[in-house]
Design goal:
Helix content is 41%, strand content 13%. It has an eight-stranded mixed β-sheet, sandwiched between helices. The protein has helices spanning 28-39, 51-61, 73-86, 113-134, 168-189, 214-220, 224-228, 232-235, 237-244, 271-284; strands spanning 19-23, 43-48, 66-67, 92-95, 140-144, 196-201, 205-206, 230-231, 255-257, 260-261. Helix 5 (168-189) links the parallel strand 5 (140-144) and strand 6 (196-201). The chain is of the alpha/beta class. It has a single domain (19-204, 232-283), classed as Rossmann fold (3-Layer(aba) Sandwich). Bound molecules: NADP nicotinamide-adenine-dinucleotide phosphate.
């Protein structure tokens, strides 16, 4: 696999006429990616949860923000409707929004919050945008996963983790493993359509990640931050590389750690599990399998 130039420092190709939808664009990696894509001429649609933060990045880019709380599937459905009205094409769908949640919480839809925000919401959004993606030549679905996937474990009969004691890191790891499994199954289902799907780990990145977690705060909000984490601009580099590489099919279905093939939990190689996860997720968000 070719290692592309580092987009955190190198100029991106011109992206005029291309549309990039970036979720989680109100902070961190998503905001850094949205800025670089817009600077390269792309029509960027920044999506965030906080109305204030999302308005701020949208103002900076000179575009209209879209706000959706992924803990409400109705917000995701409304978001998809508005994207379909606004975007005649979708060249890049960056499923980047996500988080680590210290306590078990139920969403408006009755699901465990980590599962819904990090997996079910992007699953639903991608499904609702699928036709528009298929109608856009060379479209790509890029999902921000994590090396934390190795700490996850999928139980397809208990995706909400109701039968286990809640551990924020395990729930997070499982959701990030689901991002990889989703990517592989999406790639299989979209084979031949020209749409590619890739998941990646951005590296340990100095963002607001784990903003409510005391444990994550020990690294993300202490002087260790400067020693152990890379800046958000560098964290966005793999996403930018995937959004602009001329040969996205070469990484279709892949999981990368930054720019190279990544190490995923062995469950990520189980095609039957991927099919079962897809079908279960579809049921959970009210879509046909
Ligand atoms: N930072 C790291 O070291 C690291 C490592 C591996 C993977 N990742 C992944 O990278 C992605 C981006 O995270 P980040 O590091 O940039 O963290 P961040 O600065 O906390 O940004 C997270 C983004 O996700 C959005 N978000 C959170 N909860 C949401 C919800 N309920 N509905 C809709 N949007 C929501 C946030 O929106 P608001 O700001 O508007 O609330 C924000 O835009 C995540 O998927 C994370 O799992 C990060």
């Amino acid at each position: 696999m070719r290692t592309p130039a580092d987009p955190s420092t190198d100029a991106l190709p011109r992206l005029s006429g291309r549309t990039a939808v970036v979720t989680g664009a109100s902070a961190g990696i998503g905001a850094a990616a949205a800025r670089r894509l817009a600077a390269a001429g792309a029509d960027v649609v920044p999506v965030g949860r906080s109305p204030e933060r999302t308005a701020a990045i949208a103002r900076e880019l000179g575009v209209e923000p879209l706000v959706a709380d992924f803990a409400r599937l109705d917000d995701v459905r409304r978001l998809a409707d508005r994207l379909l009205q606004r975007c005649a094409r979708i060249d890049v769908l960056a499923n980047n929004a996500g988080g680590l949640f210290p306590r078990r919480e139920a969403t408006a839809d009755g699901h465990e919050k980590t599962l819904q925000v990090n997996h079910l919401a992007p699953f639903l959004l991608t499904a609702l945008l699928r036709e528009r993606l298929e109608a856009t030549p060379g479209a790509r679905v890029i999902t921000t996963s994590s090396a934390g996937n190795l700490a996850g474990r999928i139980d397809v009969d208990d995706l909400d983790g109701a039968r286990r004691r809640y551990s924020s890191f395990r729930a997070y790891g499982t959701s990030k493993l689901l991002n990889i499994v989703f990517t592989r199954e999406l790639s299989r289902r979209l084979a031949g359509t020209g749409v590619s799907a890739t998941a990646f780990h951005p590296g340990p990145v100095a963002t607001d990640f784990g903003r409510d977690s005391r444990a994550a705060g020990l690294v993300y909000r202490t002087p260790l931050r400067r020693l152990l984490l890379v800046p958000a601009e560098a964290g966005a580099a793999p996403l930018l590389s995937l959004a602009t590489r001329p040969d996205p099919q070469e990484v279709d279905g892949a999981y990368l750690e930054r720019f190279r093939p990544g190490r995923a939990h062995r469950q990520a190689d189980d095609a039957d599990l991927a099919r079962a996860v897809w079908e279960r997720s579809a049921r959970m968000v009210g879509l046909p399998a």
